[in-house]
Amino acid sequence: MVPRKRIPPGVKVFDTMNARAESVGEKRSFSGAWNRLQLCLIPCESFYEPNYETGKPVRWKIGMESGEPLAIAGLWRAWEEPEGPLSLSLTMLTVNANELP
């Protein structure tokens, strides 16, 4: 949601690819887009998430068993560029798995 080139010098780089659904309206990185209802669907064939069952992050591919495309709920934001058109960024809305911490 916040492109790395938009993070000011001296500020710790932070990842905004996922926005937790239960706190999206409270987090500064996401609340503006959330309050403006800048909702979107992110089409994909699959995506990867880390699985920590072994104690180390192991990439797991997640997708439809049939291989068909799917869509992920998300938020979008437009950024004005000094030279040229607007650029867009997005974040995926995520929820915690019920039985996993």
Automatic annotation (TrEMBL):
Which Gene Ontology BP annotations are present? protein-DNA covalent cross-linking repair; proteolysis
Please verify whether the record's keywords include Lyase. yes
Taxonomy, superkingdom: Bacteria
Keywords attached to this entry: Covalent protein-DNA linkage, DNA damage, DNA-binding, Hydrolase, Lyase, Protease
Record's keyword annotation contains Lyase: yes
Q: What is its EC number?
A: 3.4.-.-
Q: Which GO terms describe its molecular function?
A: lyase activity; peptidase activity; single-stranded DNA binding
**What SUPFAM superfamilies would the database entry show?**
BB1717-like
Annotated family: Belongs to the SOS response-associated peptidase family.
Name-wise, this protein is Abasic site processing protein
Organism listed in the record: Pararobbsia alpina
